[in-house]
Amino acid sequence: MTSKNLFFKLMKEDLKRRIWAAALLSLGFFFFYPVVAAFTAGEIREYVNYAKGLAEYENNLVEWLSFNCGMTVFLMIVAALICGLSSFSFLNSKSKVDFYHGIPVRREKLFAANFLDGILLLAVPYGIAQVLAVLVGISNGASGSRLWQVAVAAYGLHVTYYILMYSTVVVAAMMTGHLVIGFLGAFVFASYMPMAVGLLIGYLSSFFRTYNSVMPGLLSERILMYGIRFSPISEYFYQLSRNGEQYQNPVPMAIPMLVAWAASVLLAALSCFLYRRRPSEAAGRAMAFSITRPVIRILLTILSALGLGLFFYSVRYSMRWAFFGILFGGGICHCVVEIIYHFDFRKLFSHKLQLLACLGVSAFIMIVFRYDLLGYDRYLPKAGQVREASVQVQTITSWVSYGNTQQFPDGHYDWVNEEADDYICQNMSYHDMENLLVLASEGVQQTEKRKRAYPTNGRNYWHSYYDEEVSQEGKLWSYVNICYTMKSGRKVSRMYYMPIDGKMAPAIERMLGDEEFGKGSFPLLSMTADQVSSVRYRGKYSDQEYNEDELCLNGLEEEKKAQILETYQKEFAAMTVESMEKEAPVGLIRFCEETDEAGMLWWKQQEANQFREHPLYRYRAWRDLVNKDYYPLYPSFTETIQLLEEQGAKVGGYLEDLDVKAIQIWRDTEYEDSPEYEPDEDFYYEDYGTSRECFSIYEPEQIQELREVLAYSGLCYYDPFLQKEDMEISLMIWDPDREETRDYAEENVEGNWNASVAVVLPKGKIPEFLREEMESQKK
Amino acid sequence: MIEAINLTKRFDNIVAVDNINAQIRDGSVFGLIGTNGAGKSTFLRMAAGVLKPDDGTITIDGMEVFENEEAKKRFFYISDDQYFFSNSTPRDMMSYYRIVYPSFDKERFHGLMRSFDLDENRKINTFSKGMKKQVSVICGVCAGTDYLFCDETFDGLDPVMRQAVKSIFANDMQERHLTPIIASHNLRELEDICDHVGLLHKGGILLSRDLDEMKMSIHKVQCVLAEGMEPEELTGMEIIKTERRGRLLTLTVRGDLSRVEHTMQTANPVFYETIPLSLEEIFISETEVVGYDIKKLIF
Fold first, then answer.
1. CA A733 to CA A722: how far, in whole Å?
2. What angle, 0 to 180 degrees and rounded to 10, lies between the N-to-C axes of helices A319-342 and A352-370?
3. How far is A105 from chain B (nearest CA, A)?
4. Residues 6+ apart with CB under 8 A from A61
5. Which residues numbered 101-130 in B keep a CB inside 8 Å of some CB on A?
6. Residue of higher predicted confidence among A44 and B26
7. Per-residue pLDDT tens over the stretch B238-268
8. Distance CA B46, CA B6 (A)
9. ipTM given for this complex
10. B136 to chain A nearest CA, in Å?
């Protein structure tokens, strides 16, 4: 018999032995694919509109067949475990080992036959099931080309990641001598790196105040991107999350697939190597290779110790509890591992010295992080070391929209969001190092101050809402994320929480005036006239509905569009902190591109056609598309306002046009008593007595006087610097477009209102009558 | 020939086989005797290529066995706890063995199964222990290999089956020079089949001798000597052991039979006769010489 014949016969015999796995997987895939495809086809007949029903069926079937189907992912994981552990389960039994290793077949041949069978056990039934499901779909009227495309792509992807997971499970099977231990080993391989990386990020976040988890830098980006993915399951999930609605918006997968295949080949080679070296007497033992025992034990013990140490610390913010967690977590893990290794409960305290060493290392790591022995939070580069930087002052850019409108393969439009930090990092090249280091230096000082002010026992690092010290330093606090790009190419990022008014105001002012900062923070400042399709103006804030009152300037001449854009860009770039503190926006403006307009039109048509069955319509996907990307219009933008008014816009008239029946004012008042402290190592308690008072204004003259100074709250969202009086004010109005009335309208003796509009009172503009009223309320 | 040179195998701190040197010649039945834990199975597993020696070598006609397909094709290994596929029948096992042993004699398999009155299509997990052993032996014999390693194979067989198996071995030995190597803790079982015996104890080999040679060189003499004569006065033969019951002496002596008889005749005893020794008695005598109380080891 030739070697090739022998090989295929061995495969056949192995498949005979594992017919149960083949039956199980075939049954699962059969029910999951063709049966589901046939079952859901019945829904077509429930639609009055057959075309609509067919489209819905096709979309659902495509989603079911696609890479993103959650149930398929679950089946792949389960199949990898079943096939991986069963392929070499004979290694766990002495009698089976004697049998297989006593016959004249080399181990490599036996390995190859069993390994390949494990792949075929999944690939064949899954492939057949996919084919049958597509045929069922086609027979029910769905588009064959679309179904085949999705099915083939999904098959390739799922099988790729199945092989990766399967290879990992086989490695675990090779390293262990017992089925349950093999299962645990596979779990460890799949989860250790993600857990270790997650724990590292936990330590960084918990102890390093300036750890920047949102901006790319050496640690955060590399750790997140590569460390967490150093596991077959997390890599699988990562690729799934990248794809999102993959069948609608495919993401290139050639390189990830190649990487997965390469990793699978390496793992298979490793498994074969381990099998060749594996002693037959390992059958029935926990670990096949004694040299791996201390390695695995130490790695698990340290991870557990650090994990539980962090948990206890995060609950009590106490190092005593942290050490308790380390002792408990490390001790328990060590003992459990020893019991598993020896299958003997009495062996739980074997290798005491190793246990002590692990606990010592864990405690040391905890101390390094807790007391920042590496000086992470104190990091400040020299100006000469930095090539450029990106800076995100979150308060300044909290209202900015990052992203754009895109059209998807099924025809629908959606706003695709981009993370602020990603955008700023890619688009900002800030070079004013002198100014940046002033900001960073203040950030470092604030961080150190906070760390000194709050003892470790019983207090959270983050500021208390009632912290007097905080209020004395400044009123406006913000997270400032800085990412330095060093001249060596290395990236370093830090995050600070600091006041951006007060003594930092000049630095912020200087930054705002910097062209690079401006273009990096506000995408509109990089827009060019040829990108503009239309200009929209609205006086009312909205994030939920279509804004019917919006003015849409379509069909403007190119010169006019360019003039409005450039004028606005100039006036916006010239804004200062001082002016933003004093004036509130009076309107919003948006410069739309062609895709924006096309998207809005498309959704309008869906609504008009009563075609509200599009799944994204139900989830209000169009909401972002119509309400994103607006910029504030300030009273000082006189040139822009004039240009808009020439086109028919009534800038700033929203509040003027309201039919105000009353004004309600809510404010907090404090008790006379001072706060009480109960100093305790583990617990800090403070109590301010507060109450809320409300009073209403009905006099028309008073209402008018107050209205003249009020600013529309919705628009103030776009001005984080605006200084406002500490009170909540609502204009109680009669809205003729609202059909129902509110209950409280009946309580009003002066007139009826059926809606309210939130407004703010800029600081220093309280009318005299109101001041007197508030004084009398206090007494 | 199977040759072990300085063969050693350790399991953690236990030395299961300690520096064994042995030769198993073709065409003879080799018996591997020893108590539980002596190292018999370990030795056989190394010979079968299941275990890798820690030190030393074990070869078949000069080829190392471990992971050597060519060497492994020369033998069939029957483990003490032979594995059969779940829910398999003897026919299924035969099909598998035919894949890995190209010389497997299918017709002979059917014939032997009939002779032993075993149903080929019945599930093996419904067989008794003895029947399973029979299936193993039949598969082993039909594989057509030069060597057959049997680990405690005879233990589960009834006396009739034992004889049947022995006759099959004898037949194959004659026809195709099969060399069975049989490990057992029961010396009496192997007495009438083994040509060569090796005694293992605590991983080491105490003795390895040809059975005929041992029988030829050691004898038991029962005698009553002349008044006043002591056994020490008998010269010309090596007395290994003396037992007295009154004046009746039972002497275990080493030497050539004719020389022993001549010596006895010369001594002019009242009475003497030579009695054949059982394998047990030979072993006892041989090992007591080297200081082992063999009864404790093998009985």
1. 25
2. 150
3. 6
4. A37, A40, A133, A137, A142, A147
5. 101-102
6. B26
7. 888 888 999 899 988 888 888 888 888 888 8
8. 13
9. 0.88
10. 11
